[in-house]
Specification:
78 residues; 3 helices; elongated
Length: 78
């Protein structure tokens, strides 16, 4: 049987799994992007792999900025 308290999640804090996943996702974007741009072989420069690395770096930087913005907004609301 479902309890009313189980359905109401208004008073719960975000789980630590959700917080750590956003950081893990950001680090993965940046690390994989660096591997495909900085640590790439000479013959792969200018290939799809290289451009995909640039894309991942841009997504990682935007994601990092979003995480920092959310954190700063949360601090200012307290």
């Amino acid at each position: 049987m479902i309890n009313e308290n189980d359905l109401s999640n208004n008073n719960k804090q975000p789980s630590t799994t959700k917080k750590s996943w956003s950081l893990i996702r950001t680090v993965m974007f940046i690390v994989i992007g660096l591997m495909n741009t900085v640590l790439i072989r000479d013959e792969d420069i200018g290939s799809f792999k290289n451009y995909f690395g640039y894309l991942l770096l841009i997504v990682g930087i935007v994601d990092w900025a979003y995480v920092v913005f959310k954190y700063l907004k949360k601090i200012n609301l307290r």
